[in-house]
Amino acid sequence: PLTEAERQNITPTALAGAMHMPEPNPFVPNNLDMRPQPDMPEPARLPSKANLQAWYMQDTSFGTPRGNFYLSVRSPLANTSPRNAVLTELFVQLADDQLNEYVYPAALAGLNYRIYKHLRGFTIRLEGYSDKQQIFLNDILDRLTALEPTPERFEIAYDNLRRKLENAQQYRPYERTLAEVRKLLLEPYWTEQE
Q1: Helix H segments across the chain?
Q2: What is the spatial distance between Cα 118 and Cα 160, in angstroms, rounded to a whole number?
Q3: Beta 66-74 vs 121-129: how paired, if at all?
Q4: Model-level pTM greater than 0.70?
Q5: Are the beta carbons of 109 and 25 closer than 8 angstroms?
């Protein structure tokens, strides 16, 4: 036990005052009920709107309350030139960087995401418990539309991409072969040098 003199000498620091319990995790699922087994041999197309196509396929084997959700954002400009391809890749890297801290509670609750570039734009993939996926997706989209990276974070993303492109010639032979196959099969496809 501390003596009274020792207790008098202890003063709370600013760090101790800043410590607190974390906020409740909004992504912890409430509904973990098993899903009924549907008779669904193939994906069904949902009612569509202009510039939006939606498909749905429920798992027919396990009925778990988990789901995979893909949102593909396509733009005719995403890959029309090497410059646009690099800008799309930078956007994806900066978005992933800005979302990193936000998605940590979702990952703790069994809900994961991935954002990646493709030939026609980028895709957001959600995977995990489906109960809170809608909330998670809405929050991610809100953050992407308000994306404002700092100059320091932009420089880091730019430098990472520059090094990745410069080091591409040093990839293992099978990786270089796959890159050559993509160049032959995909159009437009830009080499690292371009």
Answers
A1: 4-9, 14-18, 82-99, 104-108, 133-145, 151-167, 173-185
A2: 18
A3: antiparallel
A4: yes
A5: yes
